Amino acid sequence: MLQEEAGAEGGDAYNVSRLRSSSLEIREKGTEFLREQLDAAQKELKMKGEECERLSHVRDQLEQELEELTASLFEEAHKMVREANVKQAAAEKQLKEAQGKIDVLQAEVSALKTLVLTSTPSSPNRQLHPQLQSTGSKAASSRHTRHKSATLTLPQLQSEPTTEPTHTSREDKELDSVLFAEFLSWREAPSLDRSSAFISRIYREDIGPCLSFTRSELSQSIQSAVENNSLTIEPVAMTTLPIVKASAIECGGPNGCRAPVETKCALSGLSRPCRHRIKLGDKESYYYISPSSRARITAVCNLFTYIRYIQQGLVRHDAEQMFWEVMRLRREMSVAKLGYFPTDES
């Protein structure tokens, strides 16, 4: 009995020992499996991290490229805008230059048309200048022809040199070195600016004295109108009315009034046959002037017209020829200032 109990206890111990060894073996295998799973999870996690890092790098690179592309697009857009502005400015400049050339060509054509009918001052064409016709012809005409200061005769633009009057053909000429030097300096950039020594001298010695009349305020207005090329000189119909008072010299309105045989000149205040009247710009008033006053104004207008033609490049003569033409026009102003003026012959 005791042996059986001892044998049973020995068998139980053996079973317990086997169970323990099996449990240890299972635990070791489980631990090893879990370690393998952990290693696999760590490797996968590492791979995921590397992938995330790579994707983050790709994202940063794409963002940088996008910024560079945006900046490049903006720079290209600004460049295109600048080029368009430059082209537009160049086109506008070319348009202005073309318009200026067209204006010069039109002025040249107009001047050439005028020269077809225009002769020298010593032999003016009376068909082109109705104001030079006889008094009887003016009275018979029912229309008044208007002449701007810019349409006065310019013989220097003809193909032939200006023909001097017979009594001056024996005169000798000698260049004044100071005047010619001033003219050459002015000719480099011709203008009517008084800062030029040449123009300043002409204003001081010729234009100012020639346009200096008794009525100084009206004289200044006439000078301004001549400078602005807005002065109108036109002949008037002559009547046999008696002398009128000074208050009737100026007649307002677009049609003005008729001038008598003798009336007071608006510039000198003397009773003279006033066969012409002047209008300043767009003003409605007319001023009747004597032949002497008209000759002085016309002489100044001739000089201004010639200078404008030089500015426009319409004068093809050399410097010395232009200089002598200016001197001739200055002499006309001096002679007119002294009271000499051409008379109309029947």
Q: What do you see in this structure?
A:
- By secondary structure, this protein is an alpha+beta fold.
- Helix content is 58%, strand content 6%.
- The protein has seven helices and seven strands, in the order ααβαααββββββαα.
- The chain has helices at residues 2-117, 135-140, 177-187, 197-210, 216-227, 291-311, 319-337, and strands at residues 147-148, 231-235, 250-251, 263-264, 271-272, 276-280, 286-289.
- The strands form two sheets. A five-stranded antiparallel β-sheet has the order 1-2-6-7-3. It has a two-stranded antiparallel ribbon with strand order 4-5.
- β6 (276-280) and β7 form a beta hairpin.
Write down how many β-strands occur, each being a DSSP E stretch of 2 or more residues.
Answer: 7
- Strand proportion: 5-15%
Low-confidence stretches: 117-125, 127-168, 240-260
**Overall pLDDT:** 76
Q: What is the helix tally? A: 7
Identify the strand order in the major beta sheet. Answer: 1-2-6-7-3
**Through-space gap between termini:** 189 Å
Percent helix, as a range, is 55-70%
Any idea what the shape is?
A: rod-shaped
> What is the H/E order?
HHEHHHEEEEEEHH
How large, in whole angstroms, is the Cα Rg?
Answer: 52 Å
Main beta-sheet annotation: 5 strands, antiparallel
Category from helices, strands and their pairing:
alpha+beta
